[in-house]
Amino acid sequence: AQTVTQSQPEMSVQEAETVTLSCTYDTSESDYYLFWYKQPPSRQMILVIRQEAYKQQNATENRFSVNFQKAAKSFSLKISDSQLGDAAMYFCAYRSGDKLIFGTGTRLQVFP
Amino acid sequence: DSGVTQTPKHLITATGQRVTLRCSPRSGDLSVYWYQQSLDQGLQFLIQYYNGEERAKGNILERFSAQQFPDLHSELNLSSLELGDSALYFCASSAGQDYPGETQYFGPGTRLLVL
Description:
Radius of gyration of chain B: 13 Å
Oligomer: heterodimer
Number of strands of chain A: 12
Strand content of chain A: over 45%
Shape of chain A: globular
Largest interface: A-B, 22 and 22 residues
Largest sheet of chain A: 6 strands, mixed
Distance between the termini of chain B: 31 Å
Number of strands of chain B: 11
Strand content of chain B: over 45%
Largest sheet of chain B: 7 strands, mixed
Structural class of chain B: mainly beta
Shape of chain B: globular
Structural class of chain A: mainly beta
Number of helices of chain A: 0
């Protein structure tokens, strides 16, 4: 069965600095998708970034980028120039077929 | 605002009761997904419907059932409620192009408290 592991329950970063959130996954599939979702205090789940497993190029979305290491089954999220609004729970997720499997989340605090 | 609406926002009920959670997907989206977020189980996929038909099942209990209606809104029915069913229930929708990378848009969730 596929699993997603986020080993950092909490992280903190100073405003304008860079932080990296870790995620590893386990799968025997070769074709899948990986996602990072943000859940602010409002509880709304917001898609941050998506990576297709067949693409070697790391996905980027403005200040958010990923480091996708397929062989190591690692998918970390880098947030550059951190802002106070980035404070939230971040969930790594894996999808192959119909199911979306989430990690346990990392709570990110941003200090001014 | 994702365009997905869920009602009610909050629900407080007693053990043994039955409740219905409602979800309206984004306009034009054919797929609806239900998720449960609880403190001990994290975020779990429950079930997916596509254009009225059940497409995939996750960790959904037999006490729970769902359906998607012809107007594409969906309802999640939870019966014989237990304390452990207290959670945030999310609905998400997607266009239904049937490709795993398709973006799912999440609603604001329904917070269920079972006393």
